């Protein structure tokens, strides 16, 4: 009996020690565990380790291989933002401007858990407000979800946000995939810097990926509203920082003060199968839930030739050289190659937009030749620029249709022609009718 009693007490002591050493937050199947001053989130696909101390730090991010973070974790500010306040106050803020308040564990459901990290920020003598970052994991998704919010007083708005900013190890084999056109793979050297502006020609999807020899990191905004954002990478020595910069809509902050929330999560995942599989598994399903991706090709009533067009030529001008090169190309590649034709119009490129007509006299017969070969032509027009010096800008209300900066001045862009063009608001009825009438004229 004495031996049995000793064994019982030894076993009890071991259990107590193990309980104090490692604490599962909601039983053995919990997604969150506290251990040795750390908080561990793990759903079997991605494992995140945070400090459980009086200072925020992301210590590790790993999948089936070693951590993507440097030894000791990431020290870079997880977020930055700017505010627009009364009397023109415009502070630029990051965690160093506040006081870290710790972390709250939330396990509202067996299949999902979140960590809520809080900072106390100060605007004036008596005005304080919190910033919260929520990191979530679930068993039904292989991705971690990152979101940011803050409670602002009356008359304060969020102007811009840079979040989440993650500093990773940069291995010699590291490459970054940016969604420019069909996609670009860039080598990450010690001083690389890349950016993709979504939506644009160099940011056609809301994501970027990094990969090394053994694993890919997926970093994407699953934003169904397609808000403007810039995905950025910047190398510094053996590290690389990835982030998303966003110009915030004033509508995201309540008019009379309240909670600002970035209206989407940033999804971060790790895929041992490579970045292509990460995009197929995670980004592709997201697109089917968007306005632009929820409609099938069949429901859009697109012409069959457009669906069959597996290659596009981009002819410029209406010269004999253009005609000769285009004929050779279509003879070689076949009539399923289509043509997006530039500089078919009488105006100089990037000058006097949108006054394209009349077309150059050679264009119509050249277009008919292409059509007789079985191919199709779409004449290029610019759907967003209006030349402030054009006649139509003066007579059709161009000034009322142009996007404007906070001070009321125009957003201006200058390209190869060196002529300043105003950026036109796509919600403007004047501009919508201008483009509608223009496309009708091109079609007929």
Describe the structure using short key phrases:
alpha+beta, TIM Barrel, globular, 7-stranded antiparallel beta sheet, 19% helix, 444 residues, 10-stranded antiparallel beta sheet, single chain, Beta-galactosidase, Chain A, domain 5
Which SSEs are present, and which pair or pack?
Blueprint: H1 2-21, E1 22-24, E2 32-35, E3 38-42, E4 47-51, E5 58-62, E6 80-84, E7 92-93, E8 99-109, E9 112-122, E10 128-138, E11 144-152, E12 157-162, E13 166-169, E14 175-178, E15 184-187, E16 193-198, E17 207-211, E18 216-221, E19 229-236, E20 239-247, E21 258-261, E22 266-271, H2 275-287, H3 304-308, E23 311-313, H4 320-333, E24 337-341, H5 363-372, E25 377-379, E26 385-386, H6 391-395, H7 398-401, E27 412-414, E28 420-423, H8 429-443
Parallel strand pairs: 23-24, 24-25
Antiparallel strand pairs: 1-2, 2-3, 3-4, 4-5, 6-7, 6-12, 8-9, 9-10, 10-11, 11-21, 11-22, 12-20, 13-20, 14-15, 14-17, 16-19, 17-18, 18-22, 19-20, 26-28, 27-28
